[in-house]
Input
Amino acid sequence: MRDVIVIGAGGGGPVVAKELAEQGLDVLLLEGGRRNENTDQNYTHYEGLDGNRITGITRNGPSDPNQQAWFREVGQNAFIWDAAGVGGTTQAYFGNCPRSQPGAFVGFAGDGYQYDDAHLFPFTYEELLPYYRWVEKTLPVQTAAMGTKEALFYQGCQAIGLPLNATKDIVVDSFRPNENAILQPQGNAGKTTNSELLRFPQAQGCTFCGYCSIGCNLPKGAPRNLKAKRSTHNSYVPMALTADLWSDAGKAITLMPDAKVISIVTDSSSMFGQPKASGVRWRNTLTGEQFEERAKVVVLAAGSIESPRIWLNSNLPNPNGWVGKGLTDHAMDWVTGVFDEPVEGFKGAAAGARADFPGRGCLDQVALGPAFYAFSLAFSDSGIRGQYTNGRSRRSIYGKWDGPSGRVLGRELKQVMGQFQHATSILVITDDDVEEQNRIELSDLVADQQGPVARIKLAKRKRSKRTLANREFLANKSAEILRAAGAKKVLRLDWPGMLLHMQSSMRMGLSEADSVLDENAQSRWVEGLYVADNSALANGCGGSNPTLTTQALATRTAEKIMQTHFGAKPWVGTREPLSSVDESVTEAVLSRGIF
Amino acid sequence: MQKLILSSELLQQMRGIELTSMSRRNFLILSGLFGALAPTGVLAKGSKALPDLESVDWAEVLRGFSVDTLNGLAAFAVPGLDPFSKRQKLTVQGFGGVDNGAGPFMSVALDISAPFDPNLSLLLITALAAMRDRIIARIFKYHGRAGVIGKFQYQHQKEMLDRVDQAFFNWLSSSAPKQGLPLTLFSATLLNLISAVINPRSVKQGFFQGFASLSWRQKARVFMLLEAKPEKLVKLIWGDTQSPVGRLIVGNLRFLPGALLQLACSASYVEPPLLIDFTDLSLIARPPGWDFAGYQIDDTGPRLKPVDGWDDFMGYFEGRTEVKDA
Output
């Protein structure tokens, strides 16, 4: 019997696995997708190959590229951007690590802004701070460097009177360089395009390649734990696999890729009359064989879609009906500015600069390659510009941008794409409310070998008034910033559902009536079952990118597991964490042959 | 192989769909599937002989049918000077999506995005075939005066259609290898059916039929109809939104039109796999989409490839390399 089985090696699962492995527990980490090894050789930066969300190596699908991607029933115009495989979606994320907006937590003194007060985190922001600091040191999180596009964004922010935020916390409307889980450029990095000069150790950290959304294998020649972007594949997983080598009490985890979980196994012998999690059943996606292992504790971290699916397919209790409900997605939108001069919009970190608006959400300046960029310009809920508005009112499609919002297609798309080097874009990340109508449920039409597939429901146009108002505010603010920076043409897309940030579908909360998890991220109805991915978040973090908060929460959850089930004392705040780029970790990674 | 398991209710309902031979014939014509046989030569013009369908390679016919429709979509998204752009009466100087191989690229992407199940293709096509008589009558009324359908009134032509129908559905139900199924065929068939509703003249034989035969504005109207209110559209054309099959079509209609447009744009600027040398993952030539966008690649070495980095590091804003708690 294992001490702990963690389901899912994405943004949250490996954090729990590493923390518990460091404490000496026997941890099995299951991952449904592949483990990408030898990325110097096996990873490309082609958008049509590894960047392809349907066929590429970071797609949501099995290892075998000839097998179809995993199917979800999506009953609306939406794009789901999550990735399977070790590292999960952090393989393809931008590494943005802002802390949550403090107003998303209980006990917040108030700042005059409105938050989703009905669905706050069940503990204070101050309580999470030590865990933020712990993760920021472990990853590590660093202040983003500046390139041409970031300089332009800061210029626009200053021109509309936004102040600079030179801290890690969000206090007032402000702009700042992103706090990113990206090692910043050293040596030749960021200074040359000559690939021979960009090999480790002559180049260290971010080489400004601009391929964050495809996955980071740079600098070439760097040990796995010294690759620039700190996906858990590059940070927490290598630490967990070598915990016995760099921690006195540590025990290396067992990592099992291609293990697609079918169900969580429970016993009914709990002293509280509840079922108790006692193991996990999974299927090897390559061989089709099924396995089952027992464990004292099970941690569900399969993501905001798959976690509720696994719960429901396991027939676990759901007395208040909130399993899968309350999905937040930051109601994203996209605003593009086209300038007279080249702005190098596709170079550097995918999102190096941001602006935060308490109670509203935030803006990320984003770099994409041409295929993703063309996709982003064709993604709209407002029909095709100049042809039809898809039922959107005039008030909805006009604002501080040029013309109506809508898909840019045909002649106009060619014109805009022809100015690709002259364009930069802003991603609108809305502070959206938790609402029952937005949810994950099981399909009653189709299933795969793991059971009924997930059905995603998101009522895009029927979001709460506050969500819709926040989104409009941020879209207009984006247009103001771009215009002030000198954009000659500003386009607002009015994206439909872009499920890139997905949170709170298994939410923790103050009230038993509308949450699945208690304040320790333990299931309210199954003893010994915890959730440690974005789905555990109580809300959308006030519109902050969620990964850092999920990882801080997962660290806290690991502590709670050790305290509750293994009689250990908390460690965060009592000592300094070891960084994943520490020399001792590098030595351990190299000696264990992790590439 | 990953398998999709359709609910028993869905399968039961599919088996319960009763398609009259007339509705099956109509569907074959309106969807363009009958017309897609023209290049094979089995539908010799003016011949009263029944076609020899033994030799038909359905997989090949359907692949050509689907890619033609998807090329029509690629030209709509990113027009160039190719025949599909000319056909829609909107050409724009420079490369287009068709030149970048967007049609075949989309076909592969669509099919691998949906799990394979032999029943699914049959289900989706059968569901589409169950169009309401009222709609068909409307199209036929127009077509009686103007196009191909009006010609299918003689007994031998009906027999010809019946034979094609039987051969097609037999093949669809069989265990024969089916590349290009299910989502590509469903997408192409759906676009062509809606095209027939919008412009009955689009029902033709051979190339440039259905969606690919429409003008750019008409293509936009197809998407306007598809995007507007899927329930209303399904009720209008298929008459049923609440049954599992009706819900399956509504669900697809909510998702697919947007996905098709986005995919067409993305596929027009992506590196076509044909230009990649998979032995060392270098590029054989500069992708036209990259060229047009001015996207830069590393051409300093012996082989073309994406860069490993850029020289755009300007330092840190106000020289600040780290920040503290507030």
Remarks:
- Chain A touches chain B through 99 residues (CB under 8 Å).
- The mean pLDDT of chain A is 96.
